[in-house]
UniProtKB/TrEMBL annotation:
SUPFAM superfamilies: Nucleotide-diphospho-sugar transferases. One of its GO terms (molecular function) is transferase activity. The keyword Transport does not apply. It holds the Pfam family Glycos_transf_2. Keywords: Transferase. Residues 251-434 form the Glycosyltransferase 2-like domain. This is Glycosyl transferase family 2.
């Protein structure tokens, strides 16, 4: 008999990569409730998962004294690894005499000051509370202020508490591509699972896959709840994406409304990436801020002789209809694969090579999409693989588009999922036609949820969606930091969401959810089976206990 509570929180954590500390504490509390009537095996599983979640949460904020107390209490019932135990001992020693503020108060204060970055910096540099200092450093990271983050992180690293957290801060430095700062912070950090993972990523980036693999295996032994490391281990065995196949035809399609300079930046980024002789079509969706002639001239100036098909519409027909229009172009219909872009993205050079490698290795993938980050000098997570969190008749709730803003490489892998972000996604045209996947629904005009709902339609038709976190796309709309919507704007968002809830039956949603979960489970099982011979007894025991490995 399955333990539904355990299954729910295990799956939720798997979708998160790392579960945000406050949420991890809630998960742990729920897992440890009412365990007495359970069979011994279920009690043991719940205890192991709860302890793992709470230990992971403490790595992200060791200054949470309530959390640290709970983690210490669980040490006898669920013994931790030698690496984690040594790190926890250092935390206890450094903070044993601290009468620090509660973490909730510190986080609220940092959030209140998010419009006052100088105040955040001043507090991070000199406040007597290490908990508040840490909260301010993290907030500067979230805001993407690279200079202030670096100054604050260095100040904390130099303090008596620095070795506890500067390994975490090193990820922010890595995201900012500040190699000296990353190396400096990492050199002062105590060994823990996060520092092992960062060393693994640095080794992988240097081409040393064997060292990277050894470090990830050591980290998984130190904290087996990091199930996403199984997917990272699998990626280390994946060859680099090959050159673009000469026999495959691809169309790259996008549309814009009133964003001339931003759209030209996107076109420039596209042309600088490795797309070979892919067909490009750009639709001017009834823009009023510039004339059709100005638009054509700007495209020609950026393209510099490269063929770009330009379509000028007299009125704005919205995103769903624009995509459908571009899809039905005769030039697009001759393609094997069609990529849709938003008009405000920066693309990595190898995005198409990666996606076409995915299509070759996963021929059942109908749609393929990337990891999306916010712009700025410290890119943070904006959008990753989405799943259902709850469905019923006239009810759809999705997982968070960014479960944790910090990019700890916890999403840098491939996996099946319900939906990917529509700012850069690739469609297998033959699969769409064979499955009779419908077009984008114009009822969601001008935009919002149209790409999410379309991915659900892909699954309903018998197709599948693949997330490729190796491909990092910068989305300039920056949903995570955008100005608050107006009441009318939120009304449109929720209105479209309600349309989606009314369009798809509860039975259809349940069928899609089963298919998505089965595909994701199967992929994780394959990754776990491949890693199993190399796993430590502790990691293997945890995965078997959780039903993630045979």
């Amino acid at each position: 008999m399955h333990d539904a509570v355990f299954d729910f929180y295990m799956r939720s954590h798997r979708m998160n990569g790392y579960t945000e500390p406050g949420l991890a504490m809630f998960f742990g509390e729920q897992l440890l409730k009412n365990m007495d009537p359970l069979p011994p095996q279920d009690r043991h599983r719940r205890l192991k998962l709860a302890a793992g979640l709470l230990r992971q949460a403490l790595l992200l904020n060791p200054f949470d004294r309530v959390l640290r107390g709970v983690v210490n209490q669980l040490a006898n019932a669920a013994p931790a690894s030698e690496i984690f135990t040594a790190w926890l001992g250092a935390c206890n020693k450094a903070l044993e005499d601290s009468e620090d503020m509660f973490v909730g108060e510190a986080l609220e204060q940092a959030e209140e000051w998010k419009q006052e970055e100088e105040r955040l910096l001043h507090t991070a540099l000199s406040h007597e509370s290490p908990c508040l200092r840490h909260a301010c450093v993290i907030k500067l990271w979230e805001l993407g202020n690279a200079d202030m983050f670096a100054e604050a992180a260095c100040a904390m690293a130099a303090s008596e508490y620095g070795p506890l957290v500067c390994g975490l801060y090193a990820y922010g430095a890595m995201a900012a591509q500040d190699t000296p700062l990353c190396k400096g912070l990492l050199s002062r950090a105590l060994i823990n699972p996060l520092t092992l993972n960062l060393k693994a990523e640095r080794a992988a980036a240097a081409g040393d896959a064997a060292s990277a693999r050894g470090l990830l295996l050591r980290s998984l032994d130190a904290l087996p709840v990091q199930t996403h490391l199984l997917l990272r281990l699998h990626e280390l065995e994946t060859p680099a994406p090959p050159p673009l196949p000469e026999t495959v035809r691809t169309s790259v399609l996008f549309y814009t409304w009133n964003k001339l300079d931003v759209t030209m930046d996107t076109l420039r980024s596209l042309l600088l990436s490795e797309i070979g002789d892919a067909h490009i079509a750009l639709l001017n969706n009834g823009s009023t801020a510039f004339s059709p002639e100005e638009f054509s001239a700007a495209v020609a100036g950026v393209a510099q002789g490269r063929a770009v098909e330009v379509i000028q519409l007299p009125v704005n027909i919205g995103a769903p209809a624009a995509r459908n229009w571009l899809w039905q172009l005769e030039s697009s219909r001759r393609s094997d694969y069609t990529a849709f872009l938003d008009d405000d993205v920066y693309l990595p050079q190898n995005w198409l090579r990666c996606f076409l490698q995915d299509a070759a290795e996963h021929p059942d993938a109908t749609v393929i999409g990337p990891r999306v980050v916010n712009p700025g000098r410290i890119p943070t997570i904006q959008y990753v693989a989405r799943f259902f969190s709850q469905t019923d008749t006239n009810l759809i709730r999705f997982t968070n588009n960014a479960p944790l803003f910090m990019d700890l490489q916890q999403f840098t892998y491939r996996r099946p999922c319900l939906s990917v972000m529509g700012c850069c996604h690739l469609f297998n045209r033959a699969a769409c036609e064979r499955l009779n996947v419908p077009g984008f629904d114009v009822r969601f005009t001008p935009s919002q949820v149209d790409d999410l709902e379309h991915d659900i339609q892909v699954w309903l038709a018998g197709g599948s969606v693949l997330y490729d976190g190796r491909v990092t796309v910068v989305h300039r709309q920056d949903a995570g930091r955008a100005a608050p919507r107006t009441e009318a704007g939120w009304g449109h968002v929720w209105g479209n969401h309600m349309k989606m809830e009314m369009k798809i039956t509860g039975g259809e949603l349940a069928r899609v959810n089963r298919s998505v979960q089965a595909a994701d489970d199967a992929h994780l099982a394959r990754c776990a089976a491949a890693a199993l011979p190399e796993l430590s007894p502790r990691a293997r025991t945890f995965l078997v206990l959780c039903g993630l490995a045979g």
